From TrEMBL:
PANTHER family per the UniProt record, alphabetical: FANCONI-ASSOCIATED NUCLEASE 1 (PTHR15749)
Enzyme Commission numbers on file: 3.1.4.1
Location of the region described as Disordered in the Swiss-Prot/TrEMBL record: 1-27
Entry keywords, A to Z: DNA damage, DNA repair, Hydrolase, Magnesium, Manganese, Metal-binding, Nuclease, Nucleus
Domain of life: Eukaryota
Subcellular location: Nucleus
Similarity remark: Belongs to the FAN1 family.
Domain Fanconi-associated nuclease 1-like TPR: 376-494
Enzyme class, broadest EC rank: hydrolase
Its biological purpose: Nuclease required for the repair of DNA interstrand cross-links (ICL). Acts as a 5'-3' exonuclease that anchors at a cut end of DNA and cleaves DNA successively at every third nucleotide, allowing to excise an ICL from one strand through flanking incisions.
Name of the protein described by the UniProt record: Fanconi-associated nuclease
Single GO BP term: interstrand cross-link repair
Swiss-Prot/TrEMBL catalytic activity: Hydrolytically removes 5'-nucleotides successively from the 3'-hydroxy termini of 3'-hydroxy-terminated oligonucleotides
């Protein structure tokens, strides 16, 4: 017994000792975690301070650079008159396009353009003769590293010497021709190079056309590459660099001698900047530049940038009136002051442009590469460093002007980075980023619904349902959470608001009171034959057309199968449309509201939409004009509405207005839609679209 008792006491002592040891270990672990968290917090504070210091240094350097560059030697008014007089002589469509850009941008944005940049623009307009100007624009539009002079000869309007019998162009003769026209090559921004001498593979690739590069690849590999059109140039260049035989063919193809020409990079950068400032849309925006080119060819019109003579004064845009000269050129009476609200300093413009390029490079990224991780961390640090500025009600420029700030671009970049974090299952990091984004006031408000929905979803993945429920309820309380995001959050609340996650009955009732309900749609079942799909069909499912189709058995989309069925069974006539027709109808009915007198929403004469199209107050700023147009529409029957839309189509056809895809929707389709929709239903639909920040104007 004694032995047993002793053993028991020993075991008890061992148990007490183990418990004490565990408590000590726990305290040590807690202390270690606290020290680690403190070190991480200190390191993050140092990073934030570094971000602020770098920004302050950049601002000081920008001010120093402005002082060193000196003052402009001409006033905006003098420059505007000088450029209008010179560009009025341009006749070729691409010359008119460039003339329009420079004539409107340089005087309006002189406060952010350096004297050297203004001098480059002036030199193009007034310092070059017509042949040199035409060569200049052709080289700029090509956007290539080098352009062979042989290819220059394809443009009949370029006054260059004819090629020799062997098909080569004498570079000295070209230089003499351009100099004889009144400009030195180097001074005008041109650069000549003889590829008979030293030339890198990249330079040789840049001087070859896409067709020539493809021929090298085919000869080297025995087959042509399968590349999408948008990726073809880059893909071919990569193949030529990779395949030794293709590189040998590239070098062997070089003529002896072969002279090439290009614009100096600093000159190209100035014209890229002017192109962006002309429409406040990215120079890589194909839709924007297509509209501009069509207008220069007199095949399209901007709402307030006419090419034909108009009355002396046309009052538009509130305080910003567009005044017409005798030659019909538009002048913005207060464009410069509105421009200062967008980019008050060159530092603000440079920061925006640099971030815009970074955002474009990460949009659609699938994996967290080191470069993307660095960009995401930099944006997160910047937003944390400036969180106090955006946590309170914004008192600076108008909210819609924030999209042209560095903060807006950082928020976009962090949004794209968060999507990649979620793809990789890094939900804790994604939650931290989303909470930061949601703490900001005024930045990317149109994305807040997406942020709330993803925050709730990520918290569910982390097994934190109570926090997910709280996030969903908080998202529903915000007035700019609309469309699918609101319904997704409602669904999340309905699935989580049950035991053990208990809200009080009163609170749950108040949340449900703000739910938006949709009527249950009717359904029809259509049976078809799937004949193909997947990678071999460009990722699409392909169906066999039914017996009611014009071509039975043909390969069609699933949408066409449905259209054929409705036409055969119910006599309906329709089209597969993902919003194109409805956006055009929105423009036709509310055109006057889009271009109503609202302060600050038009900065340049070439805008195809007001700056606040996706702002929370888009509807409120022009409610009287919108309601007047919708009241008129609501009183119309089917036939009357069709006729009303036909008149509007004829009045505005061809105008460059965002959302109006004239080439995709015919007047007959618009009229047919009006007859089917009828006035009251269409008025309600357009009112909802206008209230939700004018999102009807954008497919994205």
């Amino acid at each position: 017994m004694a032995g047993s008792r002793g053993t028991g006491r020993k075991r008890a002592a061992t148990g007490r000792g183990a418990g004490k040891s565990r408590r000590i270990n726990t305290r040590e672990m807690d202390l270690e975690a606290a020290l680690k968290a403190s070190a991480e917090e200190a390191a993050r504070a140092d990073k934030l301070e570094s971000v602020r210091a770098k920004e302050a240094k950049a601002r000081r350097e920008a001010r120093k650079r402005v002082r060193s560059e000196g003052l402009h030697v001409v006033t905006p008014a003098t420059l505007a008159g000088e450029m209008a007089s010179a560009t009025g002589r341009f006749r070729l469509y691409y010359m008119r396009q460039m003339g329009l850009i420079l004539e409107h941008v340089v005087p309006t944005w002189m406060h952010v353009l350096s004297p050297a940049e203004v001098d480059i623009a002036r030199k193009f307009v007034t310092g070059l003769t017509s042949p040199a100007q035409r060569l200049f624009v052709r080289l700029y539009l090509r956007k290539g590293p080098w352009f062979t002079l042989n290819a220059c000869m394809q443009y009949s309007e370029l006054v260059l010497p004819p090629p020799a019998d062997d098909g080569l162009v004498d570079a000295l003769a070209v230089q003499a021709a351009v100099e004889a026209a009144g400009a030195e090559l180097e001074d005008a921004g041109f650069a000549l190079k003889d590829f008979a001498g030293e030339a890198s593979v990249d330079e040789l690739i840049g001087a070859r056309s896409r067709v020539e590069l493809e021929a090298f690849v085919v000869e080297a590999l025995g087959a042509g590459p399968s590349l999408a059109r948008s990726e073809k140039r880059a893909g071919l260049e990569a193949m030529v660099r990779r395949e030794a035989h293709a590189r040998d063919l590239l070098v062997a193809h070089r003529s002896q001698p072969e002279w090439v020409i290009r614009l100096a990079p600093e000159v190209t950068a100035v014209f890229d900047l002017c192109q962006f400032l002309f429409q406040l849309r990215d120079a890589r925006d194909r839709d924007a530049m297509t509209s501009l080119t069509l207008m220069a060819m007199r095949q399209a019109r901007f709402a307030h940038l006419p090419l034909e003579p108009l009355p002396t004064s046309v009052p538009v845009r509130g305080r910003s009136a567009v005044v017409m000269d005798d030659d019909g050129k538009a002048r913005s009476a207060s464009g410069a002051s509105a421009a200062r609200a967008i980019f008050p300093t060159r530092h603000a413009l440079d920061a925006f442009m640099a971030l815009q390029a970074s955002v474009a490079s990460v949009d659609g990224a699938k994996t967290m590469t080191p470069d993307l991780a660095a960009l995401v961390e930099a944006s997160q640090l910047w937003l944390e460093a400036h969180a106090g500025r955006f946590a309170r009600k914004h008192s600076g420029p108008p909210p819609f002007a924030l999209r042209y700030t560095a903060g807006w671009q950082h928020a976009r970049l962090l949004t794209y980075g968060t999507r990649v974090l979620e793809r990789e299952g890094r939900y804790r990091d994604a939650v931290a980023a989303l909470r930061l984004l949601l703490s900001l006031n005024g930045l990317c408000v149109h994305r807040r619904g997406e942020w709330w929905e993803r925050l709730a979803t990520d918290l569910v993945h982390l097994k934190r349902p109570q926090e997910a429920l709280d996030a969903a309820v908080a998202g529903l309380a915000e007035r700019w959470v609309v469309f699918g995001h609101r319904f997704a959050l409602q669904k999340r609340v309905a699935s989580l608001a049950k035991p053990p996650l208990v809200y009080s009955a009163a609170r749950l009732a108040s949340v449900r009171a703000h739910f938006e309900e949709l009527a249950e749609p009717s359904t029809r079942t259509i049976v078809g034959e799937l004949v193909g799909g997947g990678a071999g069909w460009s990722g699409r499912n392909v169906w066999a057309a039914g017996p009611t189709s014009d071509v039975p058995g043909a390969h069609v989309s699933v949408e066409q199968v449905a259209l054929d069925w409705y036409a055969a069974k119910l006599g309906y006539v329709g089209r597969h449309d993902e919003g194109t027709l409805l956006r055009l109808v929105f423009v036709l009915v509310l055109y006057d509201a889009l271009f109503a007198s609202v302060d600050g929403v038009f900065v340049t004469a070439a805008q195809d939409a007001p700056l606040d199209t996706r702002d929370a107050h888009f509807y409120a700023r022009r409610a009287d004009v919108i309601e007047a147009a919708l009241e008129q529409v609501s009183r119309l029957g089917g036939e009357e509405l069709g006729a009303h839309l036909a008149v509007a189509y004829a009045a505005h056809e061809g105008k460059c207005v965002r959302g109006a895809a004239w080439e995709s929707v015919s007047v007959d389709e618009v009229v047919g839609f009006g007859r089917a929709a009828r006035g009251p239903a269409l008025a309600s639909l357009l009112r909802a679209m206008a209230k939700h920040r004018g999102r009807a104007l954008s497919a994205r």
